[in-house]
Amino acid sequence: MRDISVELEHGATGCLDGFVGLALEAIGRLVARRMNGVAELQTVLVNRMVELATGPELGAMDLLFDEFRAAHVPVEEMAPHYIPEAARQIGAAWDSDRIGFAQVTIAISRLQELLHALQTRVTADSVGCANGATVLVVVPPGEQHTLGALIVAMELRRRGVSVRMLFAPGLSDLSRLMATTRFDAALITVGSMDRVEICAKLVKTLSSLTKGRMRVAIGGAIVSQRAEALARTGADLVTNDLSLVISEFSLV
């Protein structure tokens, strides 16, 4: 895969190597759905999402809400299943030179916009259906991949967990937040190989600030490649299986 960075929405930068992690997660979800007897993703909806994300029409992503309803697929399925698969396909298209740099930049930005739109429709925080569990989702300083963290936050909220997101927090940011808010767990998302040391520092800081009370999980695109190194960070759990995190940490 080519070594090039893509400028994302709100000035975030994302290296397309992150699509490897998204691909693995998407495949894992498909396997889990088959094992649980759940219908596979509808190809026509995945293709439509990719088409609108990479197409020329502005604001077209909103059409997906009506199209999902017409296909009798809950819009809540977009974040955990359809958006990761669409991202995987867009990454594969870029890698094989079927779409260009500008097109993939716009496409990922549109997927992020779709996630933001979903959050206004399905969120435990806004509709008052949270079960009391509160989770902190952290994107480490210098981390270039944010789409996965947004998907994780969206899925947690869909399941009734309140979520607070922090992007590139410093020690003072974490100290102030821990002093005013009690979290049941923290999830650190990492997609870059060189962020392992930063993750270890974050785990140590969170443990120190909460006197070891708060459990911490690490997930992201590099979990399969750097599992042993991430396990040595002191995190309670290293996995891309969000259901396992929810179960192990008793969040729902």
TrEMBL record:
Name of protein: B12 binding domain-containing protein
Domain of life of the native organism: Bacteria
Signal sequence coordinates: none
Source organism: Rhodobacter capsulatus (Rhodopseudomonas capsulata)
Pfam families: B12-binding
Gene Ontology MF: a single term: cobalamin binding
